[in-house]
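Hey, I was hoping to borrow your eyes for a little while. A protein chain has come my way and I'm curious about its shape. Take your time with it, there's no hurry, and the full record follows here:
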Amino acid sequence: MLIKEILDNPQNIELVKATTSDAEAILEMQIACFTPHFEHYQDYATSPVKEPLEKMIFRINYEKGSYFKIMADSVHVGCLWIYEKHSQIYRIGIIYILPQFQCKGIGKKALETAEHLFPEAKVWELECPEDIVINRICYEKIGYRYTGETKVINEKLTLLYYQKDI
């Protein structure tokens, strides 16, 4: 399938478990996805752009978590890290889609697929920047609700916390 066709209408979304050998490529993708946000928010403390390779390797190997490559029609277009926060409470630690593949429903399908992979999860949690409304709409469409909890990172960045009860 041509990249153009995937850009226009991705058909098959799969989550493929990442391995340590994927770490460098995944980190490069993460930096590409989050650099515009980093430039806007100037978040030197928590930005995924500033994460070292060792942290990526830790996440990939974390025994209570799973790091997935998001594949759209066999093309690696993003990533998703999920971990068990507490018994039956799972957290979306990070999700990102390359800019050219955003707004195609890929993130939504990836999250829905992830929920089916962890049937023991009764609660799902995630956070997102307050000003990225399109992400908030996506999460709300698949059943996440804003908890009312926020975290101010700096004067430009406030995170909103979302939860989905199964």
Remarks:
- The mean pLDDT is 94.
